[in-house]
UniProtKB/TrEMBL annotation:
<dbReference type="InterPro" id="IPR042187">
    <property type="entry name" value="Flagellin_C_sub2"/>
</dbReference>
<keyword id="KW-0969">Cilium</keyword>
<dbReference type="InterPro" id="IPR046358">
    <property type="entry name" value="Flagellin_C"/>
</dbReference>
<dbReference type="InterPro" id="IPR001492">
    <property type="entry name" value="Flagellin"/>
</dbReference>
<feature type="domain" description="Flagellin C-terminal">
    <location>
        <begin position="66"/>
        <end position="149"/>
    </location>
</feature>
<keyword id="KW-0966">Cell projection</keyword>
<protein>
    <submittedName>
        <fullName>Flagellin</fullName>
    </submittedName>
</protein>
<dbReference type="GO" id="GO:0009288">
    <property type="term" value="C:bacterial-type flagellum"/>
</dbReference>
<dbReference type="GO" id="GO:0005198">
    <property type="term" value="F:structural molecule activity"/>
</dbReference>
<comment type="similarity">
    <text>Belongs to the bacterial flagellin family.</text>
</comment>
<keyword id="KW-0975">Bacterial flagellum</keyword>
<dbReference type="Pfam" id="PF00700">
    <property type="entry name" value="Flagellin_C"/>
</dbReference>
<keyword id="KW-0282">Flagellum</keyword>
């Protein structure tokens, strides 16, 4: 199952899928760069606190123990969700920096002065050809001296 939400961001939409009762968010440019968020169903039945009585001391102790267990379970799940949230916030920040860098690179490419760049290219090409010609002449000079000596 895939959900799509329209957004006011420049990207236009946010998508996530539900796979094996977990939310799957694609967090990178490649296909398998996903983060899975398993959000456990928490209710009084699952936490074991649907029935509790405090009419006797023994029942009150059982209820307190059940509530302590439920608090530990909820705290554990909250900490996992907090860690996942932290990871996603860092991923968002990294993706924003990457987007800014790509935008700046594209801008530099688009803003390049093509006439100046072609002039630089031609100048470097002429210098390279001149250096090659000088090297060829330098290689012929010893042969000319040898012919004069013979």
């Amino acid at each position: 199952m895939t959900f799509t939400f329209d957004s006011s961001t420049k990207a236009g939409k946010a998508e996530f899928s539900v796979i094996n009762n977990a939310l799957a968010f694609q967090i990178g440019p490649n296909t398998n760069q996903n983060v899975m968020i398993d959000v456990a169903e928490l209710n009084t039945v699952r936490l074991g606190i649907e029935e509790g009585s405090v009419t006797t001391q023994s029942e009150a102790n059982k209820a307190i123990f059940a509530l302590d267990q439920a608090i530990q379970t909820v705290s554990s799940i909250r900490s996992k969700l907090g860690a996942t949230q932290n990871r996603m916030e860092h991923t968002i920040n990294n993706l924003q920096v990457t987007h800014e860098n790509l935008t700046a690179s594209e801008s530099r490419i688009r803003d390049a002065d093509m006439a100046l760049e072609m002039t630089e290219f031609t100048r470097n090409n002429i210098l390279n050809q001149s250096a090659t010609a000088m090297l060829a002449q330098a290689n012929q000079l010893p042969q000319g001296v040898l012919q004069l000596l013979q």
